[in-house]
Amino acid sequence: MQDILDLIEWGCNKMQEFYYSYMNRRTQREIDRQMRLEENYRRIEERKNREIQRIYERYNQQKSAIDRENSEEWNQYREEARERFKEENREEYKETLRLLKEQYDDKIKLKEFAEQNFAAFEQNLKKTENSYLRSHSLKNTQLMMEEIIYKTEGYIYYLNTYQHDFKRVYEEKGMILKPFSLVMTEDLPYVGKCYSKRKSDFNEYYQCAIDNTNIKLVITRSERTLFDQMDQDDMINFMVLKLYEGERPNAVVSISYGEIKTSIGTMIGLEADVTRVNKGIIGLKYYEKQLNLYSNNRINQYSRTPIGTKLQVYVKDYDFALKRIVVTEKIQESLKMSSFNMVPLFFGEQEVESFQKYIQKNGWDKNDSIWMIAPQYDENHLLVGLKLQQDNDYVLESVFEKKNGREYLRYVRLLDRSSMIKYGDDVFVTCDITFQIYLDNVNVDFNETIFDECQFFRQYLASEFLYQEKIRVNSPMAVYLKQWTEVTLRLMEAHEYPRKVIANVLDWDYITENKHTFTRIYVDNISEINKFYKESIKDELCKGYAAEIYSGEKWEKKRCWLEEQNGQVVILIKEKIEDAFFVENNYELNVYIRHIPYVDKQHAKAFDIFHMGLVANESIKKAILNISDMEYVEEKCQVTHFNNPYIACNENQIRSVLKGCMVSPVFMIQGPPGTGKTTVIKEIIMQELEIDHSSKILVVSQANVAVDNVLRGIMDISPTIEWMKDIQMVRCGNEERIAEDVQTISYEGKKIEYINHLEQLSDNQNKLSRKWLNIVSETKNTEVVSECLLKNYDIIGATCVGLESNRYGLNNINFDLVIIDEAGKALPGELLIPINKAKRLIIIGDHKQLPPVIDTKLYANGEVEYDDVVERKQQEDFLNRSFFQRLYEECPEECKCMLDVQFRMPPVIAGLVNIFYDNRLKNGENCDKKESMLLGNNLIFLDMNNDPEYKESLVSYGNGKTGSPHNIREVEVVVELIKKVRGYYKKRIVVITPYKKQKTLILGKMKSEKLALVNVNTIDAFQGDEEDLVIYCMTRSHKRTKYFSDPSRLNVAFSRARNTLIIVGSSTYIGSYPKKHIMNTVYEYLKKNAKIIDFVSFMSCDLMYNPGYAGKKEKVITNNSGITQFKIAEKYNTELKQKRYCLVCKRELQADENDLCINCLLSAEEYHCACCNKKLEFSYVDKYIAKKEKPELCSDCSKVKCDICGQDVFETNRNYEKSIEHCGKYVCKTCYDSREKTIVKKWNCLECGQEQCLTQNQQDMYDYKGWQLPKYCKKCKRELSKIAYSVICEQCNKEKIELTKREVKYYENQGRALPVICKKCYNSKVVLGKCSCGKDIIVSRQQKRKFDESLNKNWIVPAWIHCEECRKKKAPKSFTSRWLCRYCAKWFDRTVGEVDDLTQVEKIAFERGQSDFYVTKQGRYFTSCPSCREKGEYKWRKYGKGCR
């Protein structure tokens, strides 16, 4: 583990050196390089100035003689001067190129080095244990490293463009460019860099020049339309996407990315359009960028979001170039880090001047409030000062001081770069903070709130630094969990690929299917592959196959397919495998069967969530990692009575319940057999719900039976308690593994009841119920629907691994209280699954009983190698010492409790079990009254010592392995024993055997003898179960074994009996173990306390069966200790009164804390807006200290007055504005609904005649907007909008002319022919002829067509038709022109007359728009000849004013 930390530290420190090498400082090599470049350039400039002076003198001398004839001589002189320039500057040219190449090579190496270190940092980031804040800080570091790499690429791009220009200028002019910059200047572009430019800065080609370079910013093509829509003075944010080299180097920029990046870490957010809604994902479009919003990042996962609406989202996670963007609706998740408004920082007058000069000199005077902060301690390890680092520019030292009782920071000095914060090693946080500068010689009001902020700031830092140090320096539990993480990953791989076969490659070829290339492999060992293939088909867990391929760096398992072709199996790999691979691997290929190790994956996922700090309560993670230093935090004791009065029999049960309800965040209980763990769990659950009815409680266990026992108990007691009748419980899990009496509350059963209820509602024509029923019934919605349903239950029971099942949707649910039972049998990954979801945690188990079941692949000589993770000599302890045991043994005494009174076993059996608990167990009064069932003793040892046939046997296999031990004689003895007991005892008998082979033999014998009500199983299967009569078979009689050296297994075997325990074994064998061995201790106890009898005597004697062995079943409610439940509660309350507790979380306050602890001081109460239900926060400082009133509404909602009813109502600003825009007044929802039902007008549709209605709300809108009533109903509108006429243009034969039914109807009503020419052709221009001025006469095709039709297509352009320019010239008041009469189609001389010359009739016709002439600036134009007008031939027609 330390190697990983050292690697990260080394890599990050190197990254810092690299960062300084080009960002802020130059190396000594670069300084020397810069001096040589400047010297070369100085010589060139001197030479250039002399040459230019010479050219000017020559030019002035020949200026008068230069003309067209001898200009060639001057050009030749200039060419000679250019060649002379090139020759004189050749050495400097080569020197500059050499230095440029050196700089380029250096930066390429640094870039590769940076990428390698970044990859190492990214890979090991997940392997280090971090707090949530440190994770944020390291994330910022990761972004900075990415920026370093992109800046390096940008600088290399700059060197390439410089080299191109340098060579071009030298070749064209013989000159040398100004030396290139050896550091990254502020103006140079790189991927991810943002610019702010006005639209007016860009030219018509969407380009903008960058100062001091020939590089231009170019807007990406997809966003140019968006750019055109913006105003000239708009300030637009851009981000660089790509860099292009060449003769015209440019940086492609994006508006979308620029706006997104500038919004990161702010409260502005992005208003994006919803473009699609899929399962669990909402597609968004922000400008031209597509984003995805996942359901777990929504405020309300179940709200429906229509396509076309807008959502306000915030960037939650991203990389520097925005190639990966995760958005969320929860603004608190988008904020980059902890922030403080203002913290005072004092300077001396001279200190602040020198400090300002220093940062201005180095160009570091930027406005950035992001600081990296590391602690400085005194000799007593108290936080006395801080190191404040601004990016990687500078770091300063400061100390905390007090004046007038108020705390502030004082500047001490600037530190050198060796004191910079090291990312892999130092404890630090990143904060968004602004420092208020004060001078010593200025009077300061120390009563300002800014000094309170400084105190909060110090307390926050002290807490976070302490936690980080505990994790980093002194957390063996963190190392243990990291080891298990790696072991789990390796075990998962072993389970994923359980079997393999080596294929002997005979031949191969390549095939292409759906544009994918496959390698088809033919094998030589056909029979072996066929057998492997057939076995895999029978394997229900087989999910496919994988082939092991070498990718150039490492071996990888890639998916492959086995297909049967022509009676033999061929292998298909979706990749082109080169011939060299088969040759180098001796024509062999490893093929694996692929399983999906569901359990291992859930464990690995739980480890990842825990290590990344994504837990429901970070205090629990702190406690787990530093269990020995866990703080004892008590809440106020609110227990005044017990729902189960029998708890008063045991003081430790009382203490367990009280502390379980009081101690936060973690409390541990050890529960030996029969001590009432289930009773305590039930009481804690009931007390928790009685205190807070809204609590969500999760009960989990490694075993199903433990969960069922708890839920069964609550089901039995809840009907007897009035307030518990409304408590909702549900059991999640496979119904086949749930007890029958608990299946009534199974999730599947509850869901069926719910669906039946919905079906009844849907039968009543309830549209919403039908819609919801469809959603609930769809399989694809199972996870979301399950989560929605389960959130309504108060108590949820499940196994640890079952929590992660997608069927139940528990992944996104956190619980107020999580109780883990049988934790001693759970692996670390199993326990972390519920731990990650807990806000408060109670762990119950017994490490003296069976440990977790470890996969045999992890033991010595197993398939999984992990010697590099855990040393071989430590592996036995690593596997056998459970996670619960490690936690319990290191947990402080006040945070744990042992239940020490057992109520199950008679005293003689309890004494045997007490060997494993150092005689700490006591017996309840009910146990003392238990009478013996057989032979006058509750403990019977059936000694087989004198039976020579009683011995174990082993089956040997050919591969050197042996099978499970078994004892044939013991099988016969057990069956005969049960037969005899059956003559008296008719209830269930339990037989426990250590070995599976022996279990199989006993079951077979039982079946042949037809013995019923006998349960035979191994020890592991019986933990958590109990019975009146238990028979334990030892099976072995000769060879000693480690099996009997495990006290936990013996403990479980002996503690299952409620009345009588019969042990079948050999006394000689048991006594053969050494004196200090646990079996020898058991043997000595049996000799003193058990009834020892041989098998022959047992079968021939009277068993003295006692039918009243059970005695009375009622418990005597007494208290051996003399302490009543109320006295204990009073005692705790008295202790609490002497302590000071936080007003919020009730934890005990430290000496320097007042009213609120440091955690609550920086936290807030979550609640919802009374109008829109938006999640809000109300700080505990405002609530308890400032005594402010909690605002009811968020900033997006207001209290407004309805313009109809006059009542004040809550409304969102958006809805208010929408109502005003809609009808000019605000209408509340109640009034709107009532007015929506009020019909004010009715009319019929013009098309179908159906009656149309206008509501009061619609009337208001139509009146406000001045709209006319619609003529058609909605159905007819849709029908009339359909295409009814479609032809191809007769002119171009390309464009399609389409008319809707409504348009066709309009043409028919007007008596017009349907168009046959498209608009494009209709409006296109053609040449009609030549104007008198010689220019073309341009008219539209429609005008030409009319001319052609009127003259029977024999058109000769008359002289009086002019081009457009001639027509625009000012015409005389009156002139004569030839025109075609509209009635007789004869030519006439058309004369322009004054408007005043109109007759009275013509004036009236003109005013009405019915005249047969039109008026222009030149005068009045008739469209008919005089003869037709005299005859009265023209008809009165309605024209628009000013038109013909």
Task: Provide keyphrases for this structure.
globular, 46 helices, disordered N terminus, 38% helix, 1444 residues, alpha/beta, six-stranded mixed β-barrel, seven-stranded parallel beta sheet
Structural class by secondary-structure content: alpha/beta
Percentage of β-strand residues: 15-25%
Specify Rg, calculated over alpha carbons.
45 Å
Major sheet attributes? 7 strands, parallel
Mean pLDDT: 79
> How helix-rich are the residues, as a percent range?
25-40%
Q: How would you sum up the global shape?
A: globular
Q: How far from one another are the termini?
A: 95 Å
Q: Given the structure, what is the number of helices?
A: 46
What does this structure look like?
It contains 46 helices and 53 strands. The protein has about 1450 residues and is an alpha/beta fold. The strands form 15 sheets. It has a seven-stranded parallel sheet with strand order 27-28-26-29-30-25-31, sandwiched between helices. Strands 11-15-14-13-12-16 form a six-stranded mixed barrel. A hairpin with a 5-residue loop joins strand 4 and strand 5 (about 250-255). Helix 2 runs antiparallel to helix 3. The longest helix has about 40 residues, at about 130-175. It is globular and about 150 Å long.
